[in-house]
Design brief:
Radius of gyration: 46 Å
Largest sheet: 8 strands, mixed, barrel
InterPro entries: Biofilm_reg_signaling, EAL_dom, EAL_sf, GAF, GAF-like_dom_sf, GGDEF_dom, Nucleotide_cyclase, Rev_trsase/Diguanyl_cyclase
Number of helices: 22
Pfam families: EAL, GAF_2, GGDEF
Number of domains: 3
CATH class of the largest domain: Alpha Beta
Oligomer: single chain
Strand order of the largest sheet: 14-15-17-18-19-20-21-22
Protein name: Response regulator receiver modulated diguanylate cyclase/phosphodiesterase
CATH architecture of the largest domain: Alpha-Beta Barrel
Catalytic activity: 3',3'-c-di-GMP + H2O = 5'-phosphoguanylyl(3'->5')guanosine + H(+)
Helix content: 40-55%
GO molecular function: cyclic-guanylate-specific phosphodiesterase activity
CATH superfamily of the largest domain: EAL domain
């Protein structure tokens, strides 16, 4: 049977099938629409969150504020139960929890090795179950019990590494949306923390600069700048309260000797100890400042009467006097203090400092280790002192110094056996100035070292000139200041070079040192004196009996002679105590194998007693005053030609023969 020819028959659609297809398409479209709307809502919420978070990060002034406000914002998008921030400096072996919403996390043990792996990847890590992670297994039970899932957000901020951690007590709690949100926040948070770190460094730098501008680098005490500010404030307060403000200007005595002898390292260590002692010696309301070098200033507040200052100063001086041990060296120091009172002696820091400084120098002139209150007449003295110091420098430059020589006589042989070179200043207006009028100033400003070198040089040159003139080869003694011994090697080198330049043996030079100089650092002086002796130079202890020599040290000193101070010789014939002291010095000197020389012999009664005591030599106006070089030369010629057994006739004073 053949198939019919023509188009196929028309099929009638199934209404039910079409309805089902349309409904499915509509359902899928609605689902897609809901998803789009949900995604839009999520994006809108994330955008709003980012904007709010950005505002938080922008206005945050520190990490604490940033953490608190940022976690509040994030709580709406990442519903964590706890959050904390860990940070570590580069090179650190552990992370420290610096911020936390839960106290239990603050004591955790977060090692750098574990956390740095998080930071190194730069990716956020979501842990579905932290119990498998070694860094969480190392935490205390209080932490492990409340955390099953966590998100680690690494943050790298310049010199610091950080990890922001969000936790929940349910495992696998955090999903992809939470991670996406935190991924958006991470770079903003990193930038904000980097900015805060930079600002913190700038603020710390500024604080450091301000501190350095107002504090002494060595001791940490306020400096001159800070002192000026405090004087202004404290003076105004004292005026309102009807009180006095007292400024103490403190200068350590002979501090330069410490630096020269032991080095600046020891000197700096000593200054630190003194600074600490001064802070402890005063009240909290008082101020201790360092101006520089060995100069300190103390501001005493709340003073109602000047008498109250004396007890405070006594405590300060007693504190300073305590021995200081630095690098196995035991140092004994003292201080001179000048006091100025506000408002009587000045109302600003410049006036108070100037007047207290003047008073301090007066304290030094009067023996050191004490205090003097400023008085107006001191300013005139200070002006004169300043002019004197300037004239001294000019005198050395212009050659205004000269030496006079006082003969020394052997009492048994009645012979001229030596002389002492004594410094004089030929001032263009004042004439011949005695050492007592300028040596203290030279000692204070350090010029005595240059003057002392000139004395040794001139003495050796004059001795050589006399030798070349055929005169007897007599030793000449020179006085040496303690300041010259502060740098012993330089002193020894100068003596050696000067003798060599003059072509003289060391026996032609005698060095006179006072007891106080020798005993200040006896162990060091023993070495210096031995080295002088090896050059042939002879040593004399000058002004013996006025100092504080230790007999145990005296027998160890390579000394050739003791010189009895003129203060004991002056009243020798009328004061039994002076006679007893002189006799004891002669006996002790002879027992130690030393020659004994009496200074300041002025009359025959003194001479007779000294001869009876067995004193070896003497000098003084009875024989001759100090003479200029040309007169001393004439004296030496007369002495060389005198009749044996008679006293040398030197300047018209001829002791009677016995």
């Amino acid at each position: 049977m053949s198939r019919p020819i023509g188009p196929p028959p028309h099929r009638i659609p199934d209404p039910d099938s079409q309805s089902r297809d349309s409904a499915e398409e509509l359902r899928e479209a609605l689902i897609d629409l809901d998803r789009a709307r949900a995604h839009e809502r999520q994006m809108r919420l994330q955008t709003e969150g980012l904007l709010e978070g950005l505002r938080v990060l922008t206005r945050a002034e520190n990490t604490r504020q940033m953490f608190d406000e940022l976690t509040t914002v994030l709580q709406r998008f990442v519903p964590f139960e706890a959050a904390f921030l860990m940070q570590a400096d580069e090179g650190s072996d552990r992370f420290e929890v610096t911020q936390s919403t839960c106290r239990e996390f603050e004591g955790g043990n977060w090692t750098a090795e574990d956390m740095l792996r998080r930071v190194a990847t730069g990716k956020i890590v979501s842990a579905f179950d932290v119990t498998a992670l070694p860094e969480w297994q190392a935490q205390p039970p209080s932490v492990r019990e409340r955390v099953r899932s966590a998100i680690h957000v690494p943050l790298r901020t310049g010199t610091r590494c950080a990890v922001l951690v969000f936790t929940h007590s349910r495992a696998a709690f955090f999903d992809r949306h939470h991670v996406d949100m935190l991924e958006r926040f991470a770079p903003l948070t990193t930038q904000a923390m980097a900015s805060m770190e930079y600002r913190a460094r700038l603020e710390a730098h500024a604080t450091r600069i301000e501190y350095m501008a107002n504090h002494d680098a060595l001791t940490g005490l306020p400096n001159r700048t800070a002192l000026a500010d405090r004087v202004e404030v404290l003076a105004a307060h004292a005026h309102r309260a009807g009180e006095l403000l007292v400024l103490l200007f403190l200068d350590l005595d002979r501090f330069k000797h410490v630096n020269d002898t032991f080095g600046h390292g020891v000197g700096d260590a000593l200054l630190k100890v003194i600074a600490k002692r001064l802070r402890e010696a005063v009240r909290e309301s008082d101020t201790v400042a360092r101006l520089g070098g060995d100069e300190f200033v103390i501001l005493l507040t709340g003073i109602t009467e000047v008498g109250a200052v004396n007890s405070m100063v006594a405590k300060i001086l007693a504190t300073i006097e305590q021995p200081v041990v630095v690098e196995d060296q035991t140092l004994f120091v003292s201080a001179s203090i000048g006091a100025a009172i506000c408002p009587a002696d000045g109302e600003d820091v410049a006036s108070l400092l100037k007047n207290a400084d003047v008073a301090m120098y007066r304290a030094k002139e009067e023996g050191r280790n004490g205090v003097r209150f400023y008085a107006p007449e001191m300013s005139e003295c200070a002006r004169v002192q300043f002019e004197l110091e300037g004239a001294l420098r000019q005198a050395l430059t212009l050659g205004e110094f000269e030496l006079h020589y006082q003969p020394r006589i052997h009492l048994e042989l009645r012979e001229l056996v030596g002389m002492e070179a004594l410094l004089r200043w030929r001032h263009p207006q004042r004439g011949l100035v005695m050492p007592c009028d300028f040596i203290a100033a030279a000692e204070e400003n350090g010029l005595i070292v240059q003057i002392g070198e000139w004395v040794i040089t001139r003495t050796c040159a004059q001795s050589r000139a006399w030798q070349d003139a055929g005169l007897p080869a007599l030793p000449v003694a020179v006085n040496v200041s303690g300041r010259q011994m502060h740098k012993p090697q330089e002193f020894l080198d100068h003596v050696s070079a000067t003798l060599a330049r003059a072509g003289l043996p060391g026996t032609r030079l005698e060095i006179e040192l006072t007891e106080s100089v020798v005993m200040q650092y006896p162990a060091q002086m023993i070495d210096v004196l031995h080295r002088l002796r090896r050059m042939g130079v002879r040593i004399a202890l000058d002004d013996f009996g006025t100092g504080h020599s230790s007999l145990s040290y005296l027998k160890r000193f390579p000394v050739d002679m003791l010189k009895i101070d003129g203060s004991f010789v002056r009243d020798l014939a009328i004061d039994g105590d002076d006679a007893a002291i002189a006799r004891a010095i002669v006996s002790m000197g002879h027992a130690l194998g030393l020659r004994v020389v009496a200074e300041g012999v002025e009359d025959e009664a003194q001479l007779d007693l000294l001869r009876q005591m067995g004193c070896d030599e003497a000098q003084g106006f009875l024989f001759s005053p100090p003479l200029p070089a040309h007169e001393m030369e004439a004296c030496m010629r007369r002495s060389a030609s005198r009749k044996a057994g008679t006293w040398p006739s030197i300047s018209g004073a001829i002791p009677r023969s016995t």
